[in-house]
Amino acid sequence: MMQIWQADFYRRPLQNERGERLWELAICDRAGDFRFSDRCVQSEAKVSWLVDRLHKASAGHPPAAIEVFRPQSLSLIQEAGKQLGVPVIPTRRTQSLKQWLLQKSQEYANEPNYTHETYDPLAVDRPPPIPLPEELWGDRWRFARVSAGYLLDVFGDRPIPIRSIPESLNPFNLGLASTVAIPGAVVDGGRQSMRLARWLEAVQPVALNYIPGAPDGLILEAGLSDRWVLATFEDKEVAAAGLNFQQHKQLCKGLHFLLVQPDDSGQTYTGFWLLQNA
Which of 25, 80, 220, 278 is the most exposed place for a label (fewest CB within 10 A)? Predict the structure, then answer.
């Protein structure tokens, strides 16, 4: 069975004896059983170097795909993957790789070429959130909760045009009981229901977060680093529900959902996403 790799290629808080910044390629599989890493100076951080090292890491057995979480790494790895005939998948859900990068970041301080700069191995540029286009938003929305068992029975089995329930986010795979209440947001999209669901499918939802402020907001994390303002509000009851939503996520390992439906009849659904901050 061909592996799915997770890869990162970016500068590290290291330099060589001539003071040149070092870049590092880190590759692992989803289980973390396979690992490969190599470094080069920044001037060599090019597609040709990547192609050579990816070929070396594969040892004649290329992966089925390579997952990449860092926007700054994506174009280089995509081009290298293209030359090797390996598809590259942008996704924030690269937990094995992120855990390894955190471990490696602790080890850099013990190296003689450590630069002592402030360094976060998982940091990516986060642009300010962009308001959702007005023509997409539906009639109304609300926070809600459903049990894990109900969630899978209803949204996992019913015919829903657009649906995303990753196996890794299955409540039972996360060790959650069927009675645990999963928080989420429900949008009654009305005539815009399908249009909104298709837009969401295109931007690839990752997580929803309630952000207190003036006004408060419901922020959608999407793609590798995109952020969208789904709603703003000043109502105290909605703000209390938002705070409760944010707190309740922590009780179910961050799991939550986004549901788009034409109306609140409960008869038909347009889009459903199971989400978790990554």
Answer: 278
